[in-house]
Amino acid sequence: MVKIQKLPSGQLVVTIPKLIAEYEELEKGMELDFKKHKKGFLLKFKKK
Fold first, then answer.
1. What's the pTM value of the predicted model, to 2 decimals?
2. Are 21 and 15 in contact (CB under 8 A)?
3. From 3, 21, 41, 42, which residue has the greatest number of CB atoms within 10 Å?
4. Is beta strand 12-15 parallel, antiparallel or unpaired with respect to 3-6?
5. Which strand (E) or helix (H) includes residue 46?
6. From the centroid of its chain, how far is CA 2?
7. What is the Cα–Cα distance from 43 to 8, expressed in whole angstroms?
8. Phi, psi (5° rounding) for residue 23?
């Protein structure tokens, strides 16, 4: 389950399951691009 949390500063943070992050080799602090889709949105990983 993906979760959206609000920090005390008002910033929103998207949390994804650890298993998905490990499978996709995502790391803390990594940047993602959001792209609008007709049924929601897509995430695109930025290459280093």
1. 0.57
2. no
3. 21
4. antiparallel
5. none
6. 8
7. 25
8. -60, -40
Residue type, 15: T
- Provide the domain count of the chain: 1
Euclidean distance between the first and the last CA atom of the chain, given in angstroms as a whole number: 26
Helix (H, G, I), strand (E, B) or coil at 18: helix
Which residue range(s) make up the domain with 8?
A: 3-45
What's at 42, amino acid-wise?
Answer: L
Q: Are 35 and 28 in contact (CB under 8 A)?
A: no
8-43 pLDDT tens trace? 999 998 888 999 889 988 888 888 888 888 888 888
Contacts of 27 (CB under 8 A, 6+ apart): none
